[in-house]
Amino acid sequence: MPRIPFLPKNERFYVLLHDGARNLVDAAEALTDLVGHYENLEMKSGHITELEHNGDTITHDIVNLLHKTFVTPIEREDIALRAQRKDVVMDYIEGAATAMRIYKIAEPTDRRREMADVVRLIVCTREKFPHSVGWNEALKRVIWRYAGVAGKPPRRKAARQRRRAARRKPA
Fold first, then answer.
1. Most C-beta atoms within 10 A of its C-beta, which of 64, 77, 143, 167?
2. Is-contact 53 90, C-beta < 8 A?
């Protein structure tokens, strides 16, 4: 007698998560190419923007599928978190490329080239080892450290020190 599963499994999540990871790797490689061979800036940053839009589409597809699926192959929150984190990293990559175009950076510095290489390595490593912890925060720190155009790090340490000082003051 053939075994019939009680609840169907939706394998589409794995396909979408893999497509999102592949798209992120493509964007990281495109950023590395942009800063490594700094020519055709409009075309290369436009390509990164297209990849970012593809990533947004994949993220929306994942979220829509989550809303339509009763039983997911892995935890619903984990799927949503992975999709959201990939989207955040993609936004940072696209933001760095767009800022270089908007601010008309004449030539990227060696540190910016190093940053792009590190981003590519982190993203490629993340695709190969998907269960590593803390990759998103590590990538944010790298981007904030090396690319002033991609954003500034939050002042967490200073804010934490102010909160501690406020608690110590007598009322």
1. 143
2. no
